[in-house]
Amino acid sequence: MKIKTTLLTCLACLCFSTLAWSQDDDAIKNTVNAYLDGITKGDTASLGKAFHPTAILRTFNAGTGKIQDFPVRNFIRNTPAGGAKATTKLISYSYAGISATATVELEFQDFKYIDLLSLLKVNDEWKIVCRVFSRVDHDVQVKGSAGITGKAPASATKKAVKPKKDDGW
Question: Model's pTM, two decimal places?
């Protein structure tokens, strides 16, 4: 009887954890799609739903040689009525715990944007908190190591580093 109860408990836990993963997958994709739909349809309500109110948009300004930040409220306010004439694609996403990343492409007639989105799960909702973007030519492809696992490089010392109270750990 104990074995049966234990097996049923384990099965229930597995079902609930699989359901939670599936819900996060769907919620992350829904948030990213709300962003992409907001851009292409000019839907500022969808953009407001996708972004956290304190989100920033960040890029490098080659003209000034500086990193340039834009508050999300300016980005939403300046979204063209009727939307931008672009095709969009969710290239990849990954998550663990309450943090996620997504890579998306917005292709326009003469160029495309590659966006690297950072998301956080805030009050059980996934929100974009940062958009780092590059304007690139059509032939530029996203490169990376998604899905590749490897051994971390050996450190020179074997001493374990203990986090301090104030360093964000």
Answer: 0.75
